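Fresh eyes needed here. Kindly weigh in on this sequence plus structure tokens:
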Amino acid sequence: MMRVGVVTFPGTLDDQDAARAVRLAGAEAVPLWHADHDLKGVDAVFLPGGFSYGDYLRCGAISRFAPLMEELIPAAKAGLPVLGTCNGFQILCEAHLLPGALTRNAGLHYLCRDQGIRVENTATAWTGEFAEGQEIVLPIKHGEGRYVADEATLAELEGTGRVVFRYSGGNPNGSLNDIAGISNEAGNVVGLMPHPEHAVEELTGAPSVDGRGFFTSILKRLVTA
């Protein structure tokens, strides 16, 4: 059975949802605590959402220096699949595993609703079960989700196909180029503001279970690797 690590920082909110999503896909969810110095031999890692360390300084700024991150950063650079959602995306940017930053929403309001997302890249470790151009619906819940980067970084992301998801049906937070999620150059590290872990069950995932595709994608990638 494939093993997916689910990281918990002080202030993480969505680790139990993430673990359940992993189990529903058929993998073992392995708890990883922020103070651990060992990734426990997992095959992939999920950084879920929340308010790690209370979002002090900046979202993800303190989490980036957690002992576990000292293990995760080199592992990700060596090819370990990593998915970060919401606060997890912010942490990946702070850790420089992904470029750019997440800032206050353009309207300065906290957003909590279902959001249309367009899949732009199906070649990553986490998107292989989707179709390019596919429209999916995932929940968003954030106050600091506006993706920003300098012009050169944006041009590189666009030119190399590393914009993995865009908002559709309206840009909720003012993210540049409607960017909802991106990947690193190798495609093993993906970050996005929406929450696939909250859209995996009929009972709680209404109006969609589109989040399942993230977890079936990574398991298929690991099995066929």
